[in-house]
Amino acid sequence: MNKIVDKIKKVLLFGFLFILFLYKDLCFLIPLALLKIDYDKLSYKTQLLLSLASSIVLILILVLIYHKYLKEKLIDYKKNFKNYFDLGMKYWFLGLIGMCFFNVTIAIFSPIKEANNEVLVQQMLNQAPLLSFISATFLAPFQEEMLFRKCLGDIFKNKTLKIIMCGLIFGLLHVVFSLKTPWDLLYVIPYGLLGASFAIMITKKDNIFIPITFHMLHNGLLTLLSILPMVLK
After folding, report:
1. How many domains does the chain have?
2. In this predicted model, what pLDDT tens digit does every residue of 94-124 receive, in sequence order?
3. Which of 43, 102, 124, 198 is the most exposed place for a label (fewest CB within 10 A)?
């Protein structure tokens, strides 16, 4: 009975945090509406700053809920940094290879050549490179790892099921909100493989800071590669 209650609590917690994640921008949209400020008339940088502020609010909520866990795992991460970094590098590299393989395969054999999510990210980088870099490199990885690897992962006792579900939902998240055609669903595979590689990291060593580190590293490197041509022009 206690196990069932514990499972229900974990599912409800994930549901609560997932809704906060999806609708976190309401924390500034509602006040703007009450003040009769037209969000659409704000500059893109102002809109992005407000979005970053809402992400920080969500991060603070996550830290408040998981502060004991985070403190314990941070100490453990510092003590075992080399071993954890080596493990994370191995699985990140495998996930990256899988992601690249399927991205190329989808581009060759389907009508779409790039994930719509990547197109949206490029648009953000073009309009506000620094703010987009901060969001993609630091804020998004922490939120997504805490939500989709820690909170969601805690629901599943079976390690294989945990890896599959954490990867699948992560992949869907990066596709469904920019979905234009059924072909776009193919990109669930490369995103899902990367998400699964992050899930393997925490499954192996039960430390959320391993996937957080490599998610930040992944996003940071890709974002820098996108920004550099703009800077060098």
Report:
1. 1
2. 999 999 999 999 999 999 888 888 878 888 8
3. 43
